[in-house]
Amino acid sequence: MRTVFLFLKIMDQLRAENAQLSQQMALLTAQVAQMQAAWPCHKCPVAVPDKFDGSLAQFPAFWGQCQLYMSLRPEDFPSDRDKVGFLISLLSGSAAHWATPLLTHPKQVLDNYAEFCHQFQAMFEDPV
């Protein structure tokens, strides 16, 4: 009989400790959530590249700026389509004219960043 009483007493103590740990866990979880909400979202202060009009002389600088921007903000470009869309949004003049058919033809290039880069560089990179 004494063993049963001792067992029940230990079970009560364990339940009390478990309840206390659950309360502490809930408090810590709430504190972490509050700290995360108050923490400023840090984004790299790199500037958005200037528009590219198709000038072969401007291509290396434009291309480098785009690669830098996307590499420093990977959370903004989770897919190939996001990268291609970003690059196309920065085109003007003859470069925009070149990209327009890509928006209306089969979407394979829009979803394939490597292929888009290959075609884009073949068109605008100075061969010299």
TrEMBL record:
Keywords: Coiled coil. It comes from the Eukaryota. Residues 11-38 form a coiled coil. Pfam families: DUF4939. Residues 25-124 form the DUF4939 domain. This is DUF4939 domain-containing protein. The lineage of its organism: Eukaryota, Metazoa, Chordata, Craniata, Vertebrata.
